[in-house]
Design a protein that fits this description.
alpha/beta, eight-stranded mixed beta sheet, five-stranded parallel beta sheet
Length: about 675
């Protein structure tokens, strides 16, 4: 039971102060006038003033509450290194027993794991959640068992009691890690991009000057280099192909280091083309020629060379040949010497007139076989005796003309095969497309028919020839779509996809296997022109294999979702198709820094004068310290008793009941009157 004096004034305290001043003024005036009862008047006024303040004696029945100690146990991934997990568990059990044996003390164990994703040790988050469930006035201290590698210090708040770190790890711990300080998301094909790497040792590392470094691309055979330790290393890398390139850098694990999890770096860089070099060969002026030129010139990433025949040899107008142009067009240079510099050659309504000798066209066929790309936009010339098909190019053209030119309106349609091909899938609603008015009848010899025209005859045929690709458009009326004839159509998107398919862009490959990563989850995507796709074998970083069946989500597209059990490089295989993907960072945040330290938690510990002590020195003694005093010393740590209590009952007794106030006030006033009346 404890008692205190309390006040419950009937008037606000400023008003009572004013009344007190009036009482003093009245007593002083009486004294100045020489009234002998001024003292009794003063006492009577003070009694009334005290009555207005309503003093009372309050007695509380209190029950003491226990002090709470937060015991934070770090169970994150870095705490699984060496013997840290065992040391931490043993220390936690011993401390809990010692704290529970203290008078008026309770223990709250807070277990801290890795945050979701690659967030590292979220100790402050877990501690804040635990503190929110307890009255802060009962917290006597926080004891953390950890290596000190905490990654959410931005969420640290002011603690109500001292915090101490009992640190795991040993003085002779050391680790080696690989750091990639700059890695672009994109790089231009054919141009080297410089990556900056650094291999550094931390802790009690042995003397060493150099280490091997293994570099592999897309999971291929690694190349080995000998690199210095503790220095920035610039490595120029030229990407081998467009799309995603997965580069893996690995330093062999050294004997005695804490972990090899931070000895690998996975870098994923998308290869993009800087410029698309196009050679446009127009056989004669026609409305579609300007459309081709405007389309290609509108793209700033396209370097266009346009070769146009304005005056065919058979035109006899008497103009001397030397007066036809200022300079001779460099046909030999373009078609023999520089042809391999072009990414795409377009023949637009071109027919043989003797301007390009057969040896030039034979070189174009060779260019395709060795990886080049040719697009033929055919007109009536393709059906004539001077057709490109009746030249050395016939070896690469996927369809033969029948010499028939169909002059009638028709709406282009996507074939069943085209509905599965990335070039023509999702081009829009064919019912809204405008008509074309001419089609060259061709007989397909090989390749894939993606679009059809009159009576379902082939309109767009794609084929792979050797290392290169060929596309045949059996009409010269695609320009009607760009002019908006009868509503137009997706000419720009169609031609863009055609060009990218011919450039072997991965997103437009019709037979491909790849995956998209999100955290530890990968979405495996298999695109094919077949009706079904086989199972995919996934090989994890540890060599374990998993076979997954795919489901068709759209025509020609099959998918499966796989949750990777660990971070690292995964290989995908379906028959001859292979792909690689990296899940998560090669070195998670938990393993970026592994040497135990108290520096990270120092701001929280120093704020209330706590301490950092290695568990190698044994468990410290526990003392009680007053608030504001040093809470740690040599071999000991301190807790601050809070003296919290619970009030069970409250009793109040008025010190000036009304009858007593009336009696005292009236007695003093009458006494003053009688004393002054005798005079």
């Amino acid at each position: 039971m404890t008692g205190t004096l309390i006040f419950d004034p009937m008037l606000p305290w400023p008003v009572l102060a004013g009344v007190g001043l009036l009482v003093l003024f009245a007593a002083g005036l009486a004294l100045w006038r020489g009234l002998s009862g001024w003292g009794l008047r003063l006492l009577g006024g003070l009694v009334v003033l005290a009555a207005l303040a309503q003093p009372a004696y309050q007695e509380e029945d209190r029950a003491p509450l226990t002090d709470i100690v937060m015991l934070v146990e770090d169970q994150s991934a870095s705490q699984q290194l060496d013997d840290r997990a065992e040391v931490t568990a043993q220390a936690a059990e011993t401390l809990e027993a010692q704290l529970s044996a203290r008078d008026n003390t309770e223990v709250r164990r807070v277990r801290v794991g890795d945050g979701e994703g690659d967030l590292g040790t979220q100790m402050m988050t877990a501690l804040n959640s635990a503190l929110a469930e307890e009255p802060r006035g009962r917290i006597a201290g926080v004891i953390a068992l950890s290596d000190g590698r905490v990654h959410d210090m931005a969420r640290a708040t002011q603690l109500p009691a001292p915090m101490h770190l009992l640190m795991t790890g040993h003085d002779d711990d050391w680790d080696r890690r690989l750091i990639v300080s700059n890695a672009p998301a994109f790089a231009i094909l054919g141009e080297p991009v410089t990556l900056t790497l650094r291999v550094e040792d931390s802790g009690a590392a042995p003397e060493a000057a150099r280490t091997p470094l293994h570099v592999s691309v897309d999971g291929g055979e690694p190349m080995e280099f000998d690199v210095p330790l503790g220095e920035d290393i610039e490595i120029p890398v030229t990407l081998p192909h467009g799309g995603r390139n997965v580069l893996q850098f690995t330093v062999p694990e050294a004997e005695g280091e804490l972990t090899g999890r931070n000895n690998t770096a996975l870098i994923q860089i998308n290869g993009v083309r800087d410029r698309l070099r196009v050679l446009l060969v127009s056989g004669e002026p026609h409305p579609g020629g300007r459309t081709w030129r405007n389309l290609l010139k509108s793209d700033s990433s396209v370097d266009l060379v346009h070769f146009t025949i304005l005056r065919p040899p058979e035109k006899q107008d008497g103009v001397p040949v030397r007066e036809l142009s200022l300079i001779a067009f460099p046909t030999r240079e373009l078609f023999l010497e520089k042809i391999d510099d072009f990414d795409l050659i377009i023949f637009d309504r071109y027919k043989r007139r003797g301007i390009l000798p057969a040896i030039y066209l034979d070189n174009v066929a060779r260019y395709v076989e060795e990886g080049g790309a040719v697009l033929i936009a055919s007109g009536p010339d393709f059906a004539s005796a001077d057709s490109l098909y009746r030249s050395p190019l016939s070896e690469v053209v996927p369809a033969a003309p029948t010499a028939r030119v169909i002059e009638q309106g028709y709406a282009p349609r996507v074939t069943e095969q085209g509905a599965r091909h990335p070039v023509t899938v999702g081009l829009g609603d064919p019912e809204t497309w405008g008509r074309w008015l001419r089609q060259i009848e061709v007989e397909p010899e090989r390749g894939d028919i993606l679009m059809s025209g009159v009576e379902d005859r082939p309109l767009l045929v794609l084929d792979r020839v050797g290392e290169g690709r060929v596309a045949l458009l059996a009409s010269d009326h695609a320009w009607l779509w760009s002019r908006g004839f009868e509503g137009g159509g997706p000419q720009l998107e169609l031609l863009r996809r055609l060009a990218h398919w011919m450039m072997k862009e991965p997103e437009l490959e019709e037979e491909t296997l790849y995956a998209e990563a999100s955290g530890q989850t990968m979405r495996i995507i298999r695109r094919t022109l077949d009706e079904a796709a086989g199972p995919v074998t996934v090989t994890g970083p540890d060599g374990a294999e998993v076979v997954l069946e795919l489901e068709e989500v759209s025509p020609g597209r099959f998918e499966a979702v796989y949750e990777g059990p660990e971070i690292g490089l995964y290989r995908l295989r379906d028959g001859d198709l292979e792909s690689v993907i990296g899940l998560g960072p090669a070195a998670p945040k938990e393993f970026e820094q592994t040497i135990a330290t108290g520096a990270v938690l120092a701001p929280q510990i120093d704020s209330l004068r706590g301490g950092v002590m290695p568990l190698d020195d044994g468990l410290p003694r526990i003392r009680n310290v007053r608030e504001g005093r040093p809470a740690a010393g040599r071999g000991w740590i301190g807790l601050t008793p809070r003296g919290a209590f619970e009030t069970r009952d409250v009793t109040q007794v008025a010190l000036l009941p009304p009858w007593l106030v009336l009696l005292l006030a009236s007695g003093l006033i009458v006494g003053a009157w009688l004393r002054e009346g005798r005079r």
